[in-house]
Design a protein that fits this description.
Helix 1 (5-17) crosses helix 2, helix 2 (19-34) packs antiparallel against helix 3 and helix 4 (55-62) packs across helix 5 (66-72). The chain has helices at residues 5-17, 19-34, 38-51, 55-62, 66-72, 81-95. By secondary structure, the protein is mainly alpha-helical.
């Protein structure tokens, strides 16, 4: 099911104004990646980039062209680990969210 532009704009507006929501989005994006759902992870990261740093500023931060970053986070994109963690680091800096990985046994 495709998301409407209005829904995406609502998510981005809330992410801009609500620090806890930004933290939840960021956490959900990385959890999706860790669970193997990269499509969802990339979609959430795109929304987070658009709501916070923007692709042009992200481009300056990670020293990659913004078009390349758009492609990396597109549905068929496949960022390298270096690029992925560069994006994550830039988002952590901008959002002031520090993520940490913890392990649990099932």
């Amino acid at each position: 099911m495709a998301l409407t532009r209005e829904f995406k704009e609502t998510v981005q507006a809330r992410a801009r104004s609500d620090p806890r929501y930004r933290e939840a989005l960021f956490t959900e994006a990385l959890n999706a990646y860790l669970a193997g759902d990269t499509a969802t992870g990339k979609a959430i990261l795109r929304d987070l980039v658009n709501a916070t740093i923007g692709f042009e500023e992200l481009s300056e931060e990670v020293k990659k062209p913004s078009k390349s970053l758009h492609r990396m986070l597109a549905p068929n994109g496949n960022p390298s680990a270096e690029n992925f963690f560069g994006i994550v680091a830039a988002l952590q800096k901008r959002t002031r969210v520090r993520l940490k990985v913890t392990a649990r046994t099932a």
